[in-house]
Design goal:
Helix content is 38%, strand content 29%. With 229 residues, it is α+β, with helices and mostly antiparallel strands. Strands 1, 2, 3, 4, 5, 6, 7, 8 and 9 form a nine-stranded antiparallel β-sheet that branches. Strand 3 and strand 4 form a beta hairpin.
Length: 229
């Protein structure tokens, strides 16, 4: 009898703890701000640090691809920046809303080979340091013909960087528990450079300069960096 009572108490304690965790997770993932139309266009500055946006003709996208982008993403942004020395960085950001995270097919290590690029070496996890903390990123080097394009990117879900399948499953589990479906963001920078070490260093400077310019809340949305820092 005493053993049964102890088991019931243990089960009740476990259930209570689970309910408390679910409640706390609901607060953790609760929408913290009102959705802003054209967020990327407004949040990402056209000039910061030594970088300024180049005036280039927009890419011509076939109607089928354009419709897919509209269906999958709520907003995309593609720009090329140059510093005073003429070094160019290509920036691409995509935000999703109606699904948990950005589709796997749009990760650079998948979509670049699908476009005919060859992966050089392994995809490497690392950190990108900024004045507001470090961002967990992935770096890879790609090549097509004479074009070598090193890439740095990260993926966020619920304004938090996810790098592994385990990270993603945790956020998905929290979404199920709380009944919320957090959107995702893929932030990618790349440069045409035969020297990946130079390219990754320039990309780090580019991102750090941008994060030092945007507002604290926009920095959180773009990179997962805490707005309190």
């Amino acid at each position: 009898m005493q053993s049964s009572v102890m088991k019931m108490r243990s089960t009740a304690t476990w259930l209570a703890a689970l309910m408390v965790c679910a409640s706390l997770l609901g607060v953790w993932l609760r929408p913290r701000d009102v959705e802003v139309a054209n967020f990327l266009q407004k949040a990402v500055p056209i000039a910061f640090g030594e970088w300024s946006k180049l005036d280039e003709s927009p890419l011509v996208i076939d109607p089928g691809t354009a419709e897919t982008l509209r269906r999958v993403y709520k907003e995309t942004l593609a720009r090329t920046y140059s510093n005073k020395a003429g070094y160019r960085i290509m920036l691409s950001i995509a935000r999703s809303a109606n699904q948990i995270g950005v589709q796997e097919a749009h990760r650079p290590e998948i979509c670049y080979p699908a476009q005919g690029f060859e992966l050089i070496g392994n995809v490497k996890d690392g950190t990108l340091n900024t004045a507001f903390g470090s961002i967990e990123v992935r770096r890879l080097n790609t090549k097509m013909g004479a074009r070598t394009e090193p890439i740095t990117y990260w993926l966020t879900m619920a304004d938090r960087v996810v790098r592994t399948q385990w990270d993603k499953r945790i956020v998905q589990f929290i979404a199920v528990v709380t009944g919320q479906a957090p959107g995702g963001l893929l932030f990618r920078v790349s440069s045409i450079d035969p020297n990946p070490d130079v390219a990754f260093a320039m990309q780090q400077q580019f991102v750090a300069d941008m994060m030092a310019t945007v507002s604290a809340e926009d920095r959180r949305k773009l990179s997962g960096l805490s707005p309190q820092l």
